[in-house]
Write a structure and sequence with these properties.
Layout lengths: L5 E4 L8 H10 L4 E6 L3 H4 L6 H14 L2 E7 L12 H21 L3 E5 L10 H21 L2 E5 L8 H11 L4 E3 L3 H6 L4 H7 L7 E3 L17 H10 L6 E3 L9 H17 L2
Parallel strand pairs: 1-2, 1-8, 2-3, 3-4, 4-5, 5-6, 7-8
Helix pairs in contact: 1-3, 4-5, 8-9
C-alpha cells in the first residue's frame, strides 16, 4: 500500500453498475472506494437497499479486493438539515439515520457530509443554527453505530477547514472530523496549505483533484501547489487516504485519466 492509501469516488468511473465499479477500481490500482449518495433518485434509493442488496455489494467489494471506505453523502443538498421547512428538516434527519444504517451494514467507517446548511434556499442565522444542532444529533447517532462523520468544505456555509473545525470543537466528539477538499479550498479563495494546517489531528481523508475545475485539468497542470500540499500533509503527520474526486461518467477515456492521476499522486508521495 502507498504512503497514503488512494481512494476513488465512484463518479470518477465510466462504468455504471456499482459491482462492476468496484472491480474496475481495484484493477486500476485503487485501495479504497467512496460510494455516492447524492440527490438523484437513483443514488438516494441506496438508503433503502434491502439486506440482500447490501450483502451483494459487500461480496463484490470482497471479491474485487477493495475496501468500502466512505459514503459521499450529498443528498442533503436536496433535503438540507438546516431547512426552514420542518418537513424537509425531518426528511433530512431520516436520511441521516438511513445513511448511518447503510454505512454500518456495508462496514463503511466514514460518512463524508457536505457542509451546506441549505443549498436551494436562502442561508440565514436560523438555517445555520438548525444545521449545527442537527449535526450534533447526527454525530450522536453515528457514534452509537461506530461511524465517523466527516465534514467537507464546500462553496456555502462551511467554506473552509477553519469553519469545519469550529463545528468539531463545538460538538467535541471523537466521531466528528474534517474531510478537506483541496480544490474547493482554492475555489473559495482559501490558502490551501494554511487551511490544512488548521485541521491537524482531525482530518479523516482528503479529496484531491486539480483546480479550477470548470474544465478537467490533469493533476499538476492547474493552480494547485501539490508540492506544497504534500509538504503540509507530512508536516501535520497526516496518514489517511487521498480520495480522487473526478467526474468521468461520460468519458470513455477515463482509465487513462485515472492511471495518470494515480501515477502523479505516487510521485508526489515519494518526494523528500
Amino acid at each position: 500500500m502507498s504512503v497514503y492509501p488512494i481512494g476513488i469516488y465512484e463518479k470518477a468511473l465510466y462504468v455504471k453498475k456499482l459491482e462492476w465499479m468496484l472491480d474496475n477500481a481495484s484493477r486500476l490500482g485503487f485501495d479504497l472506494f467512496e460510494i455516492s449518495v447524492d440527490e438523484s433518485d437513483m443514488r438516494m434509493s441506496r438508503l433503502e437497499w434491502n439486506k440482500d442488496k447490501r450483502n451483494r455489494v459487500l461480496r463484490a467489494a470482497s471479491h474485487a479486493g477493495i475496501r468500502l471506505f466512505s459514503i459521499c453523502f450529498s443528498g442533503h443538498r436536496k433535503y438540507p438539515m438546516g431547512s426552514a421547512d420542518p418537513e424537509i428538516e425531518k426528511r433530512a434527519m431520516v436520511m441521516m439515520k438511513q445513511a448511518i444504517g447503510l454505512a454500518y451494514d456495508l462496514g463503511i467507517p466514514v460518512i463524508q457530509m457536505a457542509g451546506y446548511d441549505v443549498f436551494y434556499e436562502p442561508h440565514t442565522e436560523d438555517t445555520a443554527k438548525r444545521f449545527d444542532e442537527n449535526l450534533q444529533k447526527s454525530v450522536d447517532m453515528a457514534a452509537g453505530a461506530g461511524i465517523m462523520l466527516s465534514v467537507e468544505n464546500v462553496e456555502k456555509y462551511v467554506t473552509s477547514v477553519e469553519k469545519a473545525m469550529e463545528l468539531v470543537r463545538w460538538i467535541d466528539s471523537p466521531w466528528l472530523s474534517v474531510y478537506p477538499d483541496v480544490a474547493n479550498l482554492y475555489m473559495t479563495g482559501c490558502r490551501v496549505q494554511e487551511e490544512l494546517r488548521k485541521g491537524k489531528g482531525h482530518i479523516t481523508a482528503v479529496h484531491v483533484r486539480e483546480a479550477p475545475d470548470d474544465v478537467y485539468l490533469p493533476f499538476g497542470q492547474g493552480k494547485l501547489d501539490f508540492d506544497g500540499i504534500f509538504q503540509v500533509l507530512k508536516e501535520i503527520r497526516f496518514h489517511g487516504p487521498l480520495v480522487v474526486e473526478l467526474w468521468n461518467q461520460t468519458n470513455p477515456e477515463y482509465e487513462n485519466v485515472l492511471t495518470e492521476a494515480i501515477a502523479f499522486l505516487k510521485r508526489e508521495m515519494e518526494r523528500d
